[in-house]
Amino acid sequence: MVLKIIERCGLGSDRLMRDILGYIVVNGPATAYRIARDMNIHFAQAYRKVKRLERFRLVRRVDGGRGDVFEATVRGLVACYYYSCADRRVVAARLARGVDREAVSRFLDAYFQYAGECAPVDDLPLMVFYAVSVGVPMGYVADLLPLLRPICSIVSAAVPEIETAK
After folding, report:
1. pTM of this prediction?
2. ∠ CA(30), CA(33), CA(39), 5° rounding?
3. Cα(139)–Cα(143) distance, rounded to whole angstroms?
4. Which residues in the chain come in under a pLDDT of 70?
5. Which SUPFAM superfamilies does the record associate with it (predicted)?
6. How is the beta sheet containing 59-62 ordered, strand by strand?
7. Domain boundaries of the chain, sorted by first residue
8. Which of 49, 58, 103, 129 could be cross-linked to 143 through a Cys-Cys bond (beta carbons 3.0 to 4.6 Å apart)?
9. What class, spelled out in words, does domain 4-74 have in CATH?
């Protein structure tokens, strides 16, 4: 099952857009000019595809000085992993912030299988929280539970305020 938010961007049917997303994931932030030059495609075509990726929030602009520099978002990394735009180990390594890359790969494979069509794909800790709530087997989620600590601290800090408001 494909998550609707990833499917809507058209990566499944547009090979060039997958290649451009893969380029951005592997080579880091890049301008449309650099993408066009390195991939040997016309600049207007590269810019149009990058703008489409930006519209679906798969990439975002970062301060690059002279030109627009684009980098992959978490949603872009998840989409890249799903469509194999780049080596899945590289994508998992980019997503793994302080956790095992292999654990991230196992989690994403299970997430695509168990999560609903409207499951979140914008933040890895949120994805882990959602996976726990919908019943993804703990074997896939256990190694990523440390990512939930910031969420738990925010919720626990908010609970006393909620109780006093009643």
Report:
1. 0.83
2. 85
3. 8
4. 1-3, 64-66, 151-152, 154-166
5. Winged helix' DNA-binding domain
6. 30-31, 69-72, 59-62
7. 4-74, 96-161
8. 103
9. mainly alpha
